[in-house]
Amino acid sequence: MSEDCIFCKILNGDFGTEFVYENEYLAVFNDIHPKAPVHMLVVPKVHVASLNELEDKHLMGELLAGVKEAAKRAGLKAYKTQINTGKEAGQEVFHLHIHVMGRK
Ligand code: AMP
Ligand code: ZN
Fold first, then answer.
1. Which of 26, 37, 39, 45 has minimal CB crowding within 10 Å?
2. How many angstroms does the Cα of residue 59 sit away from the middle of ligand 2?
């Protein structure tokens, strides 16, 4: 938990955000400014600033499994994923997240 991190606060339940899916490693919630009809964010429960700081290969696998599970639960057969890493690449929230975007 990082005190000034918006995603840590969401994961902590501070805003009552509804989770599309959740397990011991991650939570999935809808992006507040969707760029597709379905736009979800897969977010690890531990605070990791970006993919560059993620060392845990088991967690890497869990995050991809979370992408598949979220897509399935949202009824997406086809979808795009995106990980912005670093400010210059458009990363705005420095708590690792995988964008999952598609239409039903
Ligand atoms: P990125 O540019 O990869 O860091 O993406 C950050 C994403 O987080 C953007 O698509 C934002 O719309 C989304 N976002 C920011 N604040 C919130 C929030 N409170 N709840 C849900 N999504 C958010
Ligand atoms: Zn965080």
1. 37
2. 15
